[in-house]
Design brief:
Layout: E1 4-9, E2 15-20, H1 22-34, E3 36-39, H2 45-59, H3 65-78, E4 83-88, E5 92-99, E6 102-108, H4 117-127, E7 131-137, H5 141-149, E8 153-160, E9 165-173
Antiparallel strand pairs: 1-2, 3-4, 4-5, 5-6, 7-9, 8-9
Helix pairs in contact: 2-3
């Protein structure tokens, strides 16, 4: 691909040549068109559960990995009954789970985090919900900041009886 030159007119009517790398822009557009958000399918279960376990153990290093492993089978049974949407770009890179208006979580492959996938998934479920509720561990400051940036507010603090960790109950309402 070649670098294209585009002529622009300044307010003083003099032409200025601006170099744009069209190839890179087209690459970004093409990447966006390959990726999709779709409804969870049974074939996704093992990938989704691997993401669930990997992201929970990484994000919650203050809770022993044995806790997540002990809950693995229970969550695996619940996933097909929840509203789950996956972000797919040649393979599943992340997912979001809902039970009614309760946001059970957003889980993104570690190598794909901080690339806007979590926001895309959250925006997707916001389109079809008037309000959302979630619980997040207070020590998971990265997630707390993400949700606050996306319009969630802390409703209350409570202790998760299973882990004895403080969790925040956060709410979002469509404006």
């Amino acid at each position: 691909m070649t670098v294209e030159h585009i002529s622009l007119i300044r307010s003083d009517q003099t032409a200025v040549k601006v170099t744009c790398n069209i190839a890179k822009q087209m690459e970004k557009v093409n990447d966006m068109h390959r990726a999709t958000i779709r409804v969870f399918q049974k074939k996704d279960l093992n990938t989704v559960m691997e993401l669930w376990l990997d992201t929970n153990t990484a994000a919650h290093d203050f809770i022993g990995e044995d806790y997540w492993r002990a809950n693995y089978d229970t969550v695996k049974q619940m996933i097909p009954d929840a509203a789950v949407y996956v972000y797919e770009d040649q393979s599943v890179k992340g997912f979001v789970g809902l039970i009614g208006n309760y946001l059970a979580g957003i889980f993104i492959e570690k190598s794909e985090q901080s690339k806007g996938i979590g926001k895309l998934l959250l925006d997707y479920i916001k389109m079809n919900n008037e309000d959302l509720l979630l619980q997040v561990y207070k020590k998971n400051s990265r997630a707390v900041q993400f949700y606050q940036r996306e319009g969630f507010v802390v409703d209350k603090e409570q202790i998760d009886e299973n882990t004895n960790e403080i969790e925040l109950v956060m709410k979002w309402r469509k404006k």
